Amino acid sequence: MSSRLTAKRVIIYICALLVALWTLVPFYWLLNLSFMFNVEMNSAITHFYPHDFTWSNYVRLFNRHATGPGGVDLLPIPHGQFIRTGLKNSLIVAGVTTPLTLLIAMPCAYVLGRYVFPFRNSIVMAILLSRAYPAIAAIIPLYKMWSSLGLRGTHHGLVIVYLSITVPLVVWIMMGFFNALPRSLESAARVDGCTRFQTLYRVVLPTSLPGIAACAVIAFLLVWNDFLFAFLLATGSSALTFPPTLSNMFFQYSYPTEASAATVLGVLPVAIVAFVFQRWIRKLNIVDPL
Amino acid sequence: MAELSPASQDQSSRPRRFGLGMTDARFGLLLSLPVAAILILLNLYPFLYSFWLALRDIDLRFGIDEFTGLDNFRKTLESQDVRDAMWRTVKYSVQVTVYSTLLGLGMAILLNEKFHGRTLLTALILLPWAVSTYAAGIVWRFLLSTETGLFPAVLFRLGITDRPPNLMNIDTALTWIAIAHTWHIAPLGVFFMLATLQVIPQDLYRVGRIDKLNAIGRFRHVTLPYLKAPLLIVLILNTISAVNVFDLIYFTTAGGPGAATRVMTYEVYTTAFLNLRLGLGAAEAWLLLILVILVTLAYVRVLYRKEKKISTGEAAA
Amino acid sequence: MEPVYVQLEKYKRGLITRREYFKRLAALGVATPAIMTWLETGGVSAAQETATIAPEFPPQDEIDSKPIVFRGWAYEPTVVEDNVRIFEEQFTENVDYQTVSGDYDLIIDTMQINNEPLDMFYGHEIGIGRYILQGQLLDYSSWWDFERATAEMLPAFTEAWTWRGDGKLYGLPYFSSVRGTIMVNTAYTEKAGLDTVQLTTWDDFYDLCRQMKADGVVEYPLLNHWFATPWATAWQFLWENHNRGIDLWDFEDAYKPLFGGDHESTKTLETWAGLFADGIHPESSFNMSEGGYVDGFATGDFMFSPQQTYDGKRLNDPAMSQIAGLVDFAAPPEGAPWGKIEQGGYLLPKRERTDQQLARVYRHNSFFGYRDINDELFVAKRWAIDHALNSSYSAILEDPDVLAAYAEWMPGGERQFNDMGQYFRQAVWNPFHQCPWFLEWQIPAKEELESAILGRKSPQDAMNDLASATNELWERYRDVILSNQG
Fold it and tell me: What does the alpha-carbon distance between residue B89 and residue C33 come to, in Å, rounded to a whole number?
């Protein structure tokens, strides 16, 4: 009996190790390349760890020179300015979209989760279908509309587009969240003479803070991570967000070492935020409709 | 767990009137108005507009814009390229769905066991999902590239190949991208299934042991019935994510080698945005849309069925 | 019926269809090809035709309040900024310079479609056809230095900027290169006991590659121009057939494709498939980006590769290359073209301008694309010295300062420099580069050619399929093109 138990534990730990490797090795490789000089990366077989560790790829993205192996002067990475602008734009667009999303989505999610009213099911159905709309299909009409409205390549143009993605998702998630709250919450508030609005703002929303915060994180990640909408609706403009500026490093002349460093700059904040807030996100028990 | 109709126990107290003299109906409509406006202006209108576009020959590069009726749809249905791209989308989606659902299930079962470091591992496996598809594409591009890749280097160092092999070739590229997609999407299923696994009463397993069921038997007769609904939903979510793949391909193979990874989204992108033929692109997108809608309808069915069948305890979990 | 220009405006705004537009023009009795060209190239400025405008510029307060708008691709923006500063100092000028980033063709197309007010942007020699066809570019024929400047350029390179429809020059040279210059990793030629590599024909070159493999000199002798972008394999197919003297197009009939399964060009594709099947060429190149393709050669795994002339510098740079100091050029064949002309140019978009404003834009664009206030080829020479970008001004190809700069990285020294000059002087231009549907064509071309090289389709089938895809494009755009090239 005990030997079987031990065998089971060994298997569990082996599996856990494999899962950890599967999850982390790709990230490790990205970091590995980002800490190498180009020459080392170009060596016959790429090294499994940087033999000549360097921060130079990061430094050079910020318009600074660096010293390469053998004292060679390494110029700043010309593309660095776009990467920096891209990060700034991503921060602006995601930073504006997130609070707007919560403001628009929360009241709706609340009534959808708690009330019966006309068109309720139509709205729920529409939310579900909107999540199913393939991005590439949605962009074709938007490209034409945004061009004629002058919204192409602007921050607010991107914010509006992202609202059409984040709002339905957050409504969907919070609808379930509000629905699961105990009924006694509102009845007590109403007995105390609160109106529906007061009940929502004084009682329901404060109780739901962890869920709302998790939704804020999800909305932020969704915008920060989007490539396609920004790529097709902001290319060539000064509002271009990080992911498409990054893509240029892959199709132009640039080195995997430099591109890795730039990728890390965009991925690291997301990884940290996700790691810190993962418990909240998990508690939401999301079923992303898509 | 989200539901399509609010819990029934609330309906007994309806209609109620409070301070402002507002009915549930008005309150509900008022608060969902902004969302309804977004859905109509940013989803429904573009949706209908794209159909109108599909009825026109719009060629921005040549300044052509004329009504051609169903001609674009005819071209789309007759095109061998579109047919090939659809078939690749199907092949790709099946792979992603199978890999990511199985892997997600495996990881969920593992994380449901008690072991040191479980909390940390649970947090870590979220990372590939959090970094999005474009980053997944970049990371896997670097892992697989013959010149800078880890996998080819390992194969070479272990002496399995006599030089770092080209893994992303015309036969294997689609599968490797499906694996990269699995890396990204599997964690979502893990969380969903893990939540369900954690509410299965331990008593049931004890009963199972008394009945002399082995591990496989316990999984089949105790775990699986609980997992059935979440598993189906994960399957569908993974499928739709796979059908809509774009960034991953753009950052790894850009449709090549040859046409090996030219899936339907890439076909639409080429027509609408590389060739700037928006009308034809919109018609092709409609074909993709129909595929996605079919999968979504399956999803809705599952949700409704789940609502009817599953005990209230889980629905509220 | 309303006058011609009203019809044109309606057509442009999509109020009437193309067919309706032509019909109404015919009704007005003006739909002759000449008038069509005149309309498409946009009335007023074309009416002045060859008349040179005077180098008279607006008053200083107008210059100060209205900057020249210059949008450039993000290549070495700090150098460009410095050049802009020098221009502003030399002429007390005012320039609004910004770089754009993103999918290049998409950006430029969008700028053009949205009619953004621009005075200069970078353009690739491939692609000007579609801007001109839409009447978006202004030519340089009324520029006062037009004759002098074109006399200094290598003719084939000038031809590339001259629109076949009207014979006018639409671009000033920003950089020039020969794509397809054969780079030689001399570590392997030394191993093989070869002194120099003298090119004659593509077939001889491929035979040499096979020989190197057979002699065990190197696993993969060749890294061909076969990488993942749409402009890789398709472009080599164009230039190699052009070098071989095989005609792929009927230029007089709106670029009607002449190829197909039993055309001579199918043999080129068969040769390629053979190179791959026999292990002369690696498979990994099909996943490389353009930069990765240069870096691929820099790993030192290959002996020969057709590259851009200027990448010789990067390949010989110890900070970037494993084979720094070893990369020589194969000597180009005597008197025969090799590779393709590759040029970036300064294009002049149409915009509402007075003659004085136009003079100002000419002065600006020619500072970058020709001479500065001291009558020096300042910008071109700076690119050549600092970044090994060369020029179609033959003076740059012969400049001793440029030679000195190149000698620092060219292991073959002056001999290699002269070889490079010969690649330039012998290069020819392929009129297909002006085909307005060039970009659309690249996509099926890449697919079909790659499928054949990788043994997925027979070269005959691939060429037949490519021909039918090309015929669709040809038929679709034939009328538009013929009405413009009349």
Answer: 46
Q: Clarify whether residues A57 and A84 are in a common domain.
A: no
A290 occurs within a structural domain:
no
Q: Which pLDDT tens digit goes with each residue over B198-247?
A: 888 888 777 777 777 777 888 888 888 888 878 888 888 899 899 999 99
Are residues C318 and A39, on separate chains, in Cβ contact within 8 Å? Answer: yes
> Of the residues A74, A107, A124, which one is the last residue of a structural domain?
A74
Nearest-by-CA chain A residue for B215: A8
Q: Which amino acid, B27?
A: F
Q: Is residue A289 part of a domain?
A: no
A80 — phi, psi (to 5°)? -55, -40
Looking at chain B, list the stretches that DSSP marks H as alpha helix, in order from N- to C-terminal side: 24-38, 45-54, 71-78, 80-111, 118-124, 127-130, 132-144, 150-157, 173-197, 202-210, 215-218, 224-243, 247-252, 264-269, 278-309, 312-315
First to last CA, chain B: 7
Q: Is A255–C76 a contact, with Cβ atoms under 8 angstroms apart?
A: no
- The domain ranges of chain C are 4-47, 60-176+342-407, 179-339+425-485
In the stretch 186-245 of chain C, residues with CB closer than 8 A to chain B read 219, 228-230
Asked whether residue A10 is domain-assigned, the answer is yes
Q: Which residues of C touch A39 (CB under 8 A)?
A: 318-322
Q: Which CATH superfamily is domain C179-339+425-485 in?
A: Periplasmic binding protein-like II (3.40.190.10)
Domains observed in chain B? 80-315 (1.10.3720.10)
Q: How many domains does chain A have?
A: 2
- Give the HSE-up count for residue A76: Cα atoms under 13 Å, Cβ half-sphere: 16
Nearest to A236 by CA among A227, A245, A247: A245
State which residue of chain B sits closest to A167, comparing Cα positions.
B35
Contact C319, A74 (CB under 8 A): yes
For residues C140 and A211, what is the distance between their CA atoms, to the nearest angstrom?
A: 63
Q: Which residue range is the domain that position A37 belongs to?
A: 2-74
**C60-176+342-407 classified as CATH 3.40.190.10:** yes
Which chains have 3 or more CB–CB distances shorter than 8 Å to chain A? B, C
For residue A172, give how far its alpha carbon lies from the nearest alpha carbon of chain B (Å). 7
Q: Which residue from A54, A74, A107 is spatially nearest to A260, judged by alpha carbons?
A: A54
Q: Subunits that touch chain B (at least 3 Cβ pairs < 8 angstroms)?
A: A, C
Q: Express each pLDDT in A38-74 by its tens digit.
A: 888 877 678 899 999 999 999 999 989 999 888 888 8
In 3D space, the residue among C124, C100, C41, C72 whose CA is nearest the CA of residue C442 turns out to be C124
Joined together, the tokens standing for residue A31 give 């970091």
Any idea which of B102-116, B150-164, B219-233 has the lowest mean pLDDT? B219-233
Question: Cβ contacts (< 8 Å) between A115 and chain B: which residues?
Answer: 6, 10, 24, 27-28
Both tokens assigned to A39: 């020459």
Q: Do A115 and B278 touch (CB under 8 A)?
A: no
Answer yes or no: are the C-beta atoms of B299 and A287 closer than 8 Å: no
Given its phi and psi angles, is residue B82 left (phi above 0), alpha (psi -120 to 50 degrees) or beta? alpha
Most confident of A175-179, B29-33, B251-255, C179-183: C179-183
Could C454 and B276 be called an inter-chain contact, meaning their C-beta atoms sit closer than 8 Å? no
Cα angle vertex A173, ends A169, A177, to 5°? 160
Among residues A74, A99, A120, the one where a domain terminates is: A74
User: Between B and C, how many residue pairs show a Cβ–Cβ distance under 8 A?
Assistant: 91
